[in-house]
Design goal:
The chain has twelve helices and 14 strands. 34% of the residues lie in helices and 25% in strands. It starts with 6 loop residues before the first strand and ends with a helix. Helix 10 (228-234) runs antiparallel to helix 11 and helix 11 runs antiparallel to helix 12. The radius of gyration is 19 Å and the shape is globular. It has helices at 14-22, 37-42, 78-83, 87-90, 92-98, 104-107, 112-118, 124-131, 149-152, 228-234, 241-254, 265-284, and strands at residues 7-9, 28-31, 50-53, 63-66, 69-73, 135-140, 143-148, 153-155, 158-159, 166-172, 180-186, 196-204, 210-218, 225-226. It is an alpha+beta fold. The strands form four sheets. Strands 4-5-10-6-7 form a five-stranded antiparallel β-sheet. Strands 11-12-13-14 form a four-stranded antiparallel β-sheet, with helices on both faces. The chain binds flavin-adenine dinucleotide. Flavin-adenine dinucleotide is lined by residues 29-37, 39, 54, 74, 101-102, 106, 110-111, 113-115, 117-118, 123-125, 161, 166-167, 191-193.
Amino acid sequence: MKLPPLEYACPTTLAEAVALLASRDGDAKAIAGGQSLMPMLAFRLATPSLLVDLRKLPDLREIKIAADGVRLGAMVRWRDIEKDARLASAHPLLKAAVAHVAHYQIRNRGTIGGSIAHADPAAEIPGIVVTCDADIAVTGKSGSRVIPAAAFFRGALTTALEADEIITEIRFPPWPARRRWGFQEFARRRGDFAMAAAALFYDEDAAGKATNAHVGIIGVGERPRRLPEVEAVLNGRSINEATIARAAEVTCATVDAQEDIHASAPYRRALAGTMVERALRSACS
Ligand SMILES: Cc1cc2nc3c(=O)[nH]c(=O)nc-3n(C[C@H](O)[C@H](O)[C@H](O)COP(=O)(O)OP(=O)(O)OC[C@H]3O[C@@H](n4cnc5c(N)ncnc54)[C@H](O)[C@@H]3O)c2cc1C
């Protein structure tokens, strides 16, 4: 289907882009790679009167790696992350998850800021930012603010962003060199959204016990979330067969699961347990 009639603007400064978004009282939308928004316009699931294209805004395409962590501009594309060899050590979990996002053509255009703003519960990277306690920097007509990932996602396709706010940067905390991590996803076909995925990491103390465990689950509930009950199973213990089995069991017992045309809630819960089990095996291998 063709797009609905709308106006289009391609500002060259952030201030101009924010002013354009603010000018329509919630009836204007930013467009980045267009990979989620264009289908929504075609299906009339979104009908803004104005599209504000972010592609000419300066400074939103940088990947910065420093002692205080990894910073990704909102217009960084999946392909940019895939191609950046530094991220293999600076943030291996992020890089591994991006390999599961969509297909080659979509990865050439889709952006990290677009994915986070869109907030599809089955999208991989919203789950990674929640698991890693990343911060999301945004700018709107009232100024700039930083939203912790845990407070950003409110439900399926619903976030803490105001209508005039633009995501500018995603900030990941530093990644220690010896950290253990795993990412596992189950999708019907390669490149599809996750039916269930687990992203996790932990550090090890001098005795080899897990500390600082972060376990995130994706595609199972209405929004990505960490599982504190599973993290409690891991912290202070050696990650062995018994701990892995217990973590999988607690995942199935505690995760919120949604039913849809692809899977029932009990199936998704079981799948979540299996993903956590496999991710832990890969983390400790
Ligand atoms: C066939 C297909 C398969 C896909 N498979 C997957 C998959 O497996 N996993 C996955 O994660 N994704 C998948 N996607 C989605 C893809 O990754 C999109 O690129 C991504 O979700 C949105 O990024 P975008 O840059 O294209 O955003 P757009 O489509 O341009 O925008 C999406 C939304 O975000 C808003 N927005 C965009 N940028 C900003 C910003 N900087 N600040 C504020 N709001 C902003 C827009 O207003 C819009 O509401 C798939 C898409 C397609 C078409």
